[in-house]
What does this fold into?
Amino acid sequence: GDFYVIKERKFLIMEELSLKEIKDILESNNLLKSSKIINDEKIESISCDSRSVEKQSLFFCKGQNYKPEYLGDAIKCGAVAYISEIQYEKYEASYFIVTDILKAMAIIAARFYGYPAKSLELIGITGTKGKTTTTYFLKNILETFLNREVGTISSINVNTGKRNEEAHLTTPESLDLHKMFYEIKESNLKYAVMEVSSQSYKRNRLYGVEFDYGIFTNIAEDHISQIEHPTFEDYLNCKIEFLKHCKTVVINKNTDCLDTILSKISDKNIIYYGTDESADYYVTDIEKEKTGFKFKVINKKQGYSSEFKIKMAGRFNIENALAAIVIAKLLNVDDESIRKALSNTEILGRMNIYEQKGITVIVDYAHNGYSFSKLYESIKMDYPNRKIISVGGIVGGKAFNRRKEFGKIVGDNSDYIYLTANDPQFENVQDICNDIAQYITKKDKYEIIVDRKEAVQKAIMNAKKGDVVVLLAKGGEHYIKIKNECVSYEGDLTIAKSVLKKKRSRTKSKTEEVSYN
It folds into this structure.
């Protein structure tokens, strides 16, 4: 949801926008209930954070934690008008009362920035698992082919050509999103590749945005809670809503709920990919290599067959690479550019492997039932008969079904587990870990260590030759979300390398270095 405040919410004016035009836009979209324009002024900035408001600003009254006094603060700082679902008679300013504040934000933001998304070749990726990896495979392919940057909006970072910064939401709020599109356009970048979350449609962040291509990787029950999706059907429908706004849909033929999805998008140009030979593009002849995999991609209808390699571990990443390859072929990218990009793609926090003295440490973002299942399935195929030690926890305040999934799936696939913190928010870490523990059948095979750094350190220091230590759910993140604050955290990757180095020095190894795959 809208838990995390992005500090900078004020934006420079892109095109003149008057209060009268705002009224006309809201009316034409059947959103306006009532309005009052004191003076038909020009808007120079738009904001939903009262701390970033300056003169001639339009302020949006929204957010789960919104308080009326925020509007007062905004007016004092220079807001000349506000948009809200409720009228605040206490405050003297022009106003527009709407039926849906989130749709109003998306529509006005698009107009404020001059509808920048329409100037871009927009590619979105959705699914329960694989969004980030597929995004980076495709980003790297296009950058290799074009020999220049590609606009990227992901759960890891945002690159618009004007800024490259860490992200905190999979799909940003609409005000931020349209500014990003504007910056990508102003950087003269043709393509924008982005992750599309179910919440982005639940909360209308992408309302009014049309995509040229949409990838659907897979679907499994996730994000089910009072503040996310009340049912799996609602979760799936939000994913489908994205596909309805794509000209071409590239979908995994192996996904669950395929018939339901197809029944809702029968008017779209649909390309299938997967491991099934009936798919338009399918993968075959998979071979494990020292680092990553080699495989062949075939399109029988086109007489196409080509071999590729990925450096990343995890067999599930082959299908993510395949999805990116399909889009690349639709965009007429040559195979050599694809090969070069795939072989060089690494994503911090996604199947990063560190090895030292026979101990293997895997850092992965797996955080729900589907990703847990795929991760351990891959580990057991690639590291047979090895003892598996897992470290991780589940987020607080949402997706409560993940606690059972962790307890059962991680529990059944691990020889020992260290339960610890993972974005507890307003919940107590000990309580979350206790919830998970009730689903672990091996009651003598786990312990709770509330401090995540301590848990990671102990797991690796206690590991013996041949053991596989799996660090779950944080990936490359350097923060832990506590009470709506992103509290600095050293990071699983950094801690893992540090502990392995310390472990190496204790064993007095002569020259051996930690290898990174």
The longest helix spans residues 131-146.
